[in-house]
Amino acid sequence: MPTAFITGITGQDGAYLARFLLQKGYVVHGGMRRISQPRLARLESLGIARHVQLHEFDLLESGSILRAIRMLQPDELYNLAAQSHVATSWELPVLTAHTNALAVVEILDALRLFSPGTRFYQASTSEMFGQDTTAPQSEATPLRPRSPYGAAKVHAHHATVNARESHGLHASSGILFNHESPLRGAEFVTRKITRGLARLARGQDAGPVVLGNLDARRDWGFAGDYVPAMWRMLQEDAGGDYVIATGRTTSVREFACLAADALGFEPEIIGDGPGEAAVDRADGRCLWRVSPALCRPGEIDMLQGDASRAREALGWAPVLQVEDLALAMVRADYDDAA
Ligand code: NDP
Ligand code: GDR
Questions:
Q1: Residue 175 forms beta bridges with which residues?
Q2: 13 lines ligand 1 (CB under 6 A)
Q3: DSSP-derived pairing of the beta strands 277-280 and 241-244
Q4: Which ligand 2 atom lies nearest to the CA of residue 252?
Q5: Is the pTM of this model over 0.85?
Q6: Range of the domain at 165
Q7: Contact criterion met (CB below 8 Å) for 253 and 215
Q8: pLDDT tens digit string along 177-232?
Q9: Catalytic annotation, residues
Q10: In the chain, how many domains are there?
């Protein structure tokens, strides 16, 4: 049976990828960092916590990386672990650079020395493109990151490409645009919206959802559609770089309206700029409002991906559209809020 090692297995993508690989017959190992209370909720919600082999692992500890690679020598290694919250990266730029860039260099070096036959996947991101790019963005679009998070991911992306070109490693960089699900971390904007509005719909005294830049546009897909693309990259004869995206772009405001509609609210936008809010036409309740404190020091106005290469070379295409995604997320949060 093929073996895979997933860093970040406790995260959104780690959980979906682990389930996908188990269904394909893999022995799945996962790296989990030591915290006061193990975070197995996502693996448990997919019913797979007891089917994966978990190892104590931290990207900030070189020995941990070396030990995992030497011991397991997996057929495939998916590096999904990261400090993944863009806004936090301005607060914790050094930790972000170490976790998202230097640790990847360490993984690649350990693979070169101790397990050169392992196929490697790096979780790259549309944040690498930054502002003022052409749209839609493809593998050929220049990288101009606009956050410490994006800059660290660019370093890791180039390290992955170099490992492939200099050392012949089977190393791929998946440039994934935003992808969400009911397992999305609560601090990311889609889940913040669906959770907050679901609580309001349940009549809980939750108050409006407080948001930052409502004009930002993102290409939002479903995480469950995106993890098979990671696997497909590693089944190719050689590593490569692939954009994974839906090709559609939606503003934060439009996503909030989709989620509100799905819950039976009738949102009406009032005010503008920092004074913008949305109220429910039915009962005048405030659904969301803006707080300038949540706007970022550097924003990317618009991301929209061109996944033509993945479609042609990997036969990959997304299934869920943003409307289905918003509906699935509010349904799950509405049930949770019961
Ligand atoms: P999550 O935030 O849900 O998961 C991140 C994972 O990384 C968690 O398992 C977390 O562990 C782990 N982790 C963080 N720091 C360390 C560390 N020092 N050592 C070991 N593990 C660590 O992210 P996603 O699942 O959404 O994203 C997966 C990857 O894809 C990330 O690299 C992200 O940057 C990238 N990406 C995500 C996109 C998206 O839209 N979701 C789009 C493009 C790229 P713990 O549970 O202990 O916190
Ligand atoms: P992003 O996702 O930064 O694109 O990174 P996030 O959901 O955090 O923000 C998306 C857009 O929404 C705007 N926004 C808010 N964001 C948050 N988190 N909270 C708010 O209240 C809020 N209000 C408005 C943001 O300014 C931004 O424009 C995600 C992560 O998964 C990364 O790891 C990944 O690399 C990229 O997607 C692609």
A1: 124, 243
A2: yes
A3: unpaired
A4: 12
A5: yes
A6: 3-181+220-247+304-319
A7: yes
A8: 999 999 999 999 999 999 999 999 999 878 999 999 999 999 999 999 999 999 99
A9: 125, 127, 149
A10: 2
